[in-house]
Write a structure and sequence with these properties.
The structure holds 2 protein chains of 2 kinds. By secondary structure, chain A is mainly alpha-helical. Chain A is about 80% helix and about 0% strand. In chain A, helix 2 runs parallel beside helix 8, helix 4 packs antiparallel against helix 5 and helix 8 crosses helix 11. The radius of gyration of chain A is 22 Å and the shape is globular. Chain B is α/β, with parallel strands linked by helices. Chain B is about 35% helix and about 20% strand. Classes of the chains: A mainly alpha, B alpha/beta.
């Protein structure tokens, strides 16, 4: 296998180009950070919130671009604004939380689109929306690597607290550990991760990288420690495969990264040894045949 | 360890809806005290107030003389949640759950030390779950799940154990095991305060009982509380129909 010259060429050829190397390195960094964070997001049930925050950072990023300050500051500001607004609307009106999420994040995202349309710039701000992995500069790469390093260190140092918060916030509170602070930490990490991943897949698709790896790992193991390994490994593998595919067939790289991730999830959903659909059918097959169907006699009123 | 729970004129409202009103109560250490009342009688709210999860609009709670916040920071309180309140598919083992009790004893990253592993092993042994320690938490039976959470409180070294309906979804044999365990913990000097619907097992379980209906209807011995006319007040039934129910259950 390894001696196959054609396959080797296919893999090595893109690496002659510096932009491809930078694209791959950036993708790997973003994939690892997103995947680690996604383990908590899927367990806390924050998938929708992840979607909301990753979209809502758009105006913050555009304003940061205009003001010439780091993107992450603008993103954090609007990420927090979004969460506060969602919480306030669902707490102080009869509108339920999912509707509040829908209203706030689409409005902020739209505001971002408006700001982009009126902002003159040399760089194409539309790249924020769809990602521009092939156009990553040295500076971009350094920034992504720095932010990701901060994010990963914080997440790994606080991993036990975050897991406690995800599993049993009441016990967390009973131990005198501030659930509000952990919530804020998770939120801050979400905004930071959104910024790190902008380049790779863009604002629209960041949420895929923030949910799919964690959900995939969740179907493969019953141990959180292993989720923290499986999620980044599968995410990196899928992302690199996506970038290569986009090179070979000359198609949208951000889109392909997500398509490959989603396909991998679907395979795991079907085939996971313990929690996959096939395994469930096999183990329930004999039982369900023994259980009488719903036509069981109904007692008359 | 003397950490009685004291509530004085405690009142809690959700918006305009009163959940607790003028609750004055002392739950002593070294005893098992049962909390009895209908759904919506304020049992969960009382637990929340003891843990400081809701802010009372009147009165106060003290645990061993401390405010709920100070008691929490000292790791005095442990809570065994209702079955429905736990995500049983969470990727965590029985041992990991018990280890959560040790977080208050650990440093910034909560890295377990030898003393923590020893405390977890002791707690698992005390609730007889040592053999199942590496199972995923959802793969336990109803009674074993409860014991895992009790073990967490033991590992924590909590003085006060609050249990929310520990016998719901638990078979009779496990119920006897849990009852025995709670009695042991009380004999050690802990304060055991547990809500329950199971009047049948009350004489074996508790030293005393509290009838709650937004306020304390009666706080007395199990025998007093199980008087049909007292239960009728708590559950809003006619006395005669309740007598019938009670005698059917073999309670009276």
């Amino acid at each position: 296998m390894s001696a196959d010259p054609d396959l080797l060429d296919l893999i090595l050829e893109p690496l002659q180009y510096e932009f491809m190397v930078r694209a791959l390195v950036t993708t790997i960094i973003a994939a690892v950070l997103c995947a680690v964070l996604s383990c908590w997001l899927v367990l806390v049930g924050w998938s929708l919130m992840g979607d909301a925050v990753s979209h809502a950072v758009l105006p913050g990023v555009v304003i940061a671009y205009i003001a010439g300050i780091p993107f992450v500051i603008g993103a954090l500001g609007f990420g927090v604004l979004a969460v506060v607004a969602i919480g306030a609307i669902s707490a102080t009106s009869r509108v339920k939380e999912d509707a509040a999420i829908g209203i706030v994040f689409t409005t902020l995202f739209a505001l971002g689109l408006v700001l982009i349309s009126v902002t003159p710039s040399q760089t194409d701000l539309n790249h924020i929306i769809f990602g521009n992995i092939l156009g990553v500069s040295e500076t971009d790469l350094a920034q992504v690597a720095g932010l990701a390093a901060v994010g990963l260190v914080v997440l790994l140092l606080k991993r036990r607290d975050l897991t406690l918060y995800a599993f049993d916030p009441i016990h967390c509170h009973a131990l005198g550990i501030s659930t509000r602070r952990l919530r804020s930490l998770l939120l801050g990490m979400l905004a930071l991760t959104a910024v790190v991943s902008l380049q790779v897949v863009g604002v629209v698709l960041v949420v895929a990288m923030l949910i799919i790896p964690g959900a995939t790992a969740y179907l493969l193991t019953d141990r959180f420690r292993r989720m923290l390994l499986i999620a980044p490994v599968t995410s990196v593998a899928c992302s690199v495969a996506g970038i290569y595919l986009s090179y070979w067939i000359d198609a949208a790289s951000g889109g392909l990264v997500v398509v490959v991730q989603g396909s991998a999830f679907f395979l795991v959903y079907l085939l996971s040894p313990r929690h996959g659909l096939l395994a469930k059918w096999r183990s329930h097959g004999s039982e369900s045949r023994a259980i009488p169907s719903h036509s069981a006699p109904v007692t008359p009123p | 360890m003397i950490s009685a729970i004291e509530a004085h004129d405690l009142g809690v409202r959700y918006g305009a809806v009163p959940a607790l009103d003028g609750v004055t109560l002392r739950v002593d250490a070294g005893r098992v005290t049962a909390l009895i009342g209908m759904n919506g009688s304020g049992k969960s709210t009382l637990f929340k107030a003891i843990m400081g999860l809701v802010r009372p609009h009147s009165g106060e709670v003290r645990i061993g003389g401390l405010t709920p916040g100070a008691a929490r920071r000292r790791g005095l309180i442990s809570y065994v949640p209702q079955n429905e309140a736990v995500d049983w598919t969470f990727p965590t083992s029985v041992r990991d759950v018990v280890m959560l009790g040790r977080y208050g004893h650990q440093g910034f990253t909560r890295r377990p030390r030898r003393a923590d592993h020893a405390a977890v092993a002791d707690a698992l042994a005390q609730v007889e779950l040592t053999d199942l320690a590496d199972r995923q938490i959802g793969q336990l039976s109803g009674g074993q799940k409860k014991r895992a959470f009790v073990a967490r409180g033991i590992a924590q070294g909590a003085h006060v154990l609050l249990l929310d309906e520990p016998f719901a979804g638990v078979d009779k044999r496990s119920e006897a095991t849990i009852t025995r365990l709670l009695r042991e913990l009380a004999a050690d000097g802990r304060t055991i305060f547990t809500s329950t619907h199971d009047l049948h097992g009350l004489p074996q379980l508790a030293d005393e009982a509290v009838l709650l209906k937004g306020h304390v209807l009666l706080h007395g011995t199990v025998e007093d509380v199980l008087q049909p006319h007292q239960l009728a007040r708590a559950f809003g039934l006619e006395t005669h129909s309740l007598t019938a129910v009670a005698s059917l259950d073999g309670v009276a």
